[in-house]
Amino acid sequence: MSAAMHNSSAKIALIEPTQNIGGMSYAGGIGLRDLNTVWTLDNTIASRWTLMNAKHYGVTYPVYQPDMPIGAQNFFGLLQTVPNVKLFLNTTLAEKGGVTKSGTTISSITTTTSGSSVQTQWHASVFVDATYEGDIVRFSGASYTYGRESRTMYNESYAGVRAYTTTGNFPEKSPVPIEANDQFIPYVDTELLMPVGSADDRMMGYSYRLCITPTKSKQAPFFAPPNYNRNDFILLQRYLDALANEGVTPGLGNLVDVLIYRSYPPGDKFDMCDSASSAFTSDAINLNKGYVDGSYSDRDTIRRQTLYYVLGQIYYLATDHAVPAATRNSTLKYGLCNDQWPENNHIPPLMYVREGLRLIGDRVFTQRDVNPGTCLPDSIAIGSWDYDIHVVSRTAVKSANGTLVANNEGQLFTGLGGEGQVYDVPISILLPKKSQITNLIVPVCNSASHVSYASVRVEPTFMQLGESSGVLAALASGRGAAVQDVPASDVQAALAKRGIKYHCKDTC
Fold first, then answer.
1. Is 486 helix (H, G, I), strand (E, B) or coil?
2. Closest CA to 303 of 112, 98, 17
3. 233-250: per-residue pLDDT in tens?
4. What is the pLDDT of residues 211-235, one digit of tens each?
């Protein structure tokens, strides 16, 4: 959209692997809820979407997390305002031969359409990879990474394997054993952690963000996933037993976050998310191994395993008689939202890939660059979310008596420091190394470290980076220039014409 707004004569193809548009904001169920500073979206395309949502409900305030059919309708409505954008749904980058290069230029990409063996080749002057997987990056030969950098690599205090913390962990005084019949129980990794501060290839747990409601007339019942086995959730039961040993009987909201849909006028839909106060949440820890570099079939397997975990957890809490009655009753207060994704059994069709592949450009945005109140001359977006790293690993450690017990590692939620809550994001975060590719822009799997990505990884920031990417693509295409050669000041000027702020403060 942004590129089309900048150049109405440009021919733009929007290629979407699924039948849904809007990414996690629609198909994943989270809207634009993760936004600390609302003015950072003023006059953006994202803001237009929230106001279109508001118009539907007859309210004057932005609606950041609407009913999902309304959100989808308004994403399609936005596209109708830019006739030079053509949408191609259910169209996937070919797994073999998907990217063709000539020197440092991507000359074409090849796609397949769902249900067909026919391949289509697409030629363009500029490509934007705005996916959560970043496969154009992967198949193009651009440098990328995943997992965690070491603490010393970019001199980041929050980097690497993290020290033990009680936050989001199993009870210290009632440790949870992880063996049964001389084997590890499900959802505990058999691999040992590297030393604190070390690099590894582990990533934050993936999930499906269920919509749940306490309104009986809007409920569909929780259901068992295919091939459900209650024994897969021994760890969850042992955690509940450990809490009971300490005199705690948790409600559903103590095990997962039950987040009210942000600015949703009816006020009776909730977003089920990981909870920093719980050791066994809706995040499927350890299950995303192999996702980044895996085959498409491997990824489908991980999606199924993750969905099994999420549905199995909530079904176990709602139905299993080993669960304390108070916990079961707290869970049964809710049901799935029966008017959300009816074509998909009321389950979000998109798995939440919190982090995956990350581009390595000529400049990597790190913890040291997240500086609220500091002006960057090449800023093209504004970040405002905290450092939000969910649990990265669940492994076995030895307790005081030598028993192997469960330990969660990696979680961090902390403020940004500096002056205010907002910070400048430079244009370089979008760009591959110039020696490798000169016509690719990457707003989602961008050039950031694991730590800084934990702040920029939220949908409101992605949408800002996407809007700036569209402007950059239009400028580079119109000039026949490398994306790295377009001055940030030209992108800034185009944003300013739209009334969009790109600096953390007016005095920059």
1. coil
2. 17
3. 999 999 999 999 999 999
4. 999 999 999 999 999 999 999 999 9
